[in-house]
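User: Please run a holo structure prediction.
Assistant: Happy to. Please share the sequence and the ligand.
User: Here you go; the ligand is heme C.
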Amino acid sequence: MLSVVLVLSIASTAAAASAHAAGDPVAGRAAFARCASCHQVGPSARAGFGPQLYQVIGRKAGSTGDYKYSPAMANANFVWTEDKLRAFMKAPSEVVPGNRMRFWGIGSDRQIDDILAYLRSVK
Ligand code: HEC
């Protein structure tokens, strides 16, 4: 009996986790309002207070040509994967110590997944 309960609870956790990871681009667009005061996305996006984030997934950190990054971001030697972006949205200064983005971070995993879905969806 115990094992049945265990299997059931693992199965439902897995289902919840995958629904979660998918994210909702429409909700993500709304949630991106928190980023949009500093960041643009889309084919004609340009640097503003922060660098543009068009197709940022798979892009090298600190690499857009029209933005003057902090030394920390310019020298951050990695590519923005979804995992990196997820961690950065939670705690920017832990992922790139000394970077200049003044943002407390987002506590809600759902909102983070939604923002990622939105960023993915902007073609
Ligand atoms: C108050 C303005 C501000 C807000 C709000 C903000 N950012 Fe930023 N962001 C910046 C600045 C400034 C930088 C450049 C940091 C540096 O050069 O050290 C940056 C850098 C970034 C980068 C690195 C880009 C690259 O080209 O490597 C990503 C990714 C990013 N922000 C995502 C987000 C997301 C997602 C949100 C919303 C959840 C957000 N930011 C909210 C100002 C902001």
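Residues 12-20 have pLDDT under 50 and may be disordered.
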